[in-house]
Amino acid sequence: MKPMCLLPIALIASFSLLSPIAQADTYTKEEYQQIFAGDDTYKQEQAIESIFFVGLNDPSTYQSIKTKIDTLLPSAKDKHVIDNIAWLIKGLGYSGDPQFREYLNQLAQGDAHKKIRKYAKRALADLSKFEQWNPILQDKSQYNPEQSHRANVYAAALRSDNLELMRTTAKRIANERLFDNYMLQQLAAQLSPMRLIDDNKLAIDTYAWITRALATSGNEDFKADVEAVAQNAKQKKLRKYATKYLAKFY
Fold first, then answer.
1. Among 2, 87, 113, 125, which one is least packed by beta carbons within 10 Å?
2. Spatial contact of 229 and 215, defined as CB atoms under 8 Å apart
3. Preceding omega of 8 cis (within 30 degrees of 0)
């Protein structure tokens, strides 16, 4: 990610799902509070990105974000401030905490700058999504202490019964090029069997992305898994996708 605080938010809001995220898995509670109490917008951007998709369960961090938004709102006429608030609003959406729904509604329906209203509406959609996702991302019933926190979170997401969450995870693995054997094994496990496959678009797209992530790794040990999808998947479109990935095994 480019080190600047004025990235075009329209490119990264809500479906920033594909963008690389901050290197640190999480910050400490104290670090989050210090960052959101300060004025370094780049650090705040990085902190928000670190919250996304790691199953962070710390109400005090999200309260710190809300407090920062409240502090900035009276001066939300400057572009820099508006962009900063938009990033912070994204963080509240990632919380999945219903206590922020009314607050985000007020921002979305209020008289704040139109960009703030726009991203409050997007955060409301994210809030509903992460209300379902975060319990899965926080599940440590199969936590592997030999792997990173992020790898464990991604593995939990792939094992879930939520197709959109599985697809988002496969996209991020491919985009971040997280291709160690552990992660590739987690992807391959979803292809045999394909537990949730049927003829609907989301299911096909989800398993296509899982197959694509394996192919993108270029790891010959997992080429047979991609070949199996190309040859044996019941859905013609999924076979077509897998064949395409095989033709240019990355």
1. 2
2. no
3. no
40-78 tens-digit pLDDT:
999 999 999 888 887 788 899 999 999 999 999 999 999
Cα of 22 vs its chain's centroid, Å: 12
Q: Residue 120: how many CB atoms within 10 A of its CB? A: 25
CB 86 within 8 A of CB 115: yes
Extract the tokens encoding 32: 């989050």
Per-residue model confidence (pLDDT) at position 249: 79
Specify the residue for token string 């990033």.
Answer: 87
The per-residue pLDDT for range 135-174, each reduced to its tens digit, is 999 999 999 999 999 999 999 999 999 999 999 999 999 9
Q: Sketch the domain layout of the chain as residue ranges.
A: 9-137, 149-247
pTM, to two decimals = 0.84
Check whether domain 149-247 has CATH 3.30.420, yes or no: no
CB–CB of 171/17 below 8 Å? yes
Report yes or no: 76 and 113 within 8 Å, Cβ to Cβ: yes
Whole-angstrom Cα distance, residue 30 to residue 40? 16
Q: Residue 128 corresponds to which tokens in the numbers above? A: 């509903």
53: left (phi over 0), alpha (psi -120 to 50) or beta: left
Of the candidates 181, 187, 182, 236, the residue with the CA atom closest to the CA atom of residue 210: 187
Q: What is the pLDDT of residue 88?
A: 98
